[in-house]
Amino acid sequence: VQLQASGGGLVQPGGSLRLSCAASGGIFRINYMGWYRQAPGNQRELVATITSGGSTNYADSVKGRFTISRDNAKNTVDLQMNSLKPEDTAIYYCYVIILGDYYWGQGTLVTVSS
């Protein structure tokens, strides 16, 4: 299973970015898809998760600002990030869980700064 993430970059506080991640490699069914992030000096933290049925879960710090979505037919997961804050600066990693196994993307850097 390979994951390819895209969409990171530099944005000013209050701005928006959309991250996308595509999974490939003979996948039958992906149970969970989502995003983690890791800021410098911090542990990796869960940002958002979405199940194959569309149920979502968000970190408290991003609720109301970030929206996760997925396309089961294309095996893609997106993260719409609005009202970005400097503390959202981190490397964002997409992941999927297939039959209990985690698979990770390469990470994409999001920098929120004026």
What does this entry show, briefly?
With about 110 residues, the protein is mainly β.
Secondary structure layout plus pairing:
Elements: E1 2-6, E2 9-11, E3 17-24, E4 32-38, E5 45-51, E6 56-58, E7 66-71, E8 76-81, E9 90-98, E10 101-104, E11 108-112
Parallel strand pairs: 2-11
Antiparallel strand pairs: 1-3, 3-8, 4-5, 4-9, 5-6, 7-8, 9-10, 9-11
What does this protein look like?
It contains no helices and eleven strands. It is mainly β. The strands form two sheets. Strands 2, 4, 5, 6, 9, 10 and 11 form a seven-stranded mixed beta sheet that branches. The chain is globular, with a radius of gyration of 13 Å.
Cα gyration radius (Å): 13 Å
Largest sheet: 7 strands, mixed
Assign a percent range to the helix content: under 10%
Q: Indicate the overall shape.
A: globular
Count of separate DSSP helical elements: 0
Order of helices and strands: EEEEEEEEEEE
Question: What is the number of beta strands?
Answer: 11
Report the span from N to C terminus.
37 Å
Low-confidence stretches: none
Class of secondary structure makeup: mainly beta
Strand content: over 45%
Query: For the residues shown, what is the average pLDDT?
Result: 94
Summary tags:
single chain; 114 residues; mainly beta; 7-stranded mixed β-sheet; 11 strands
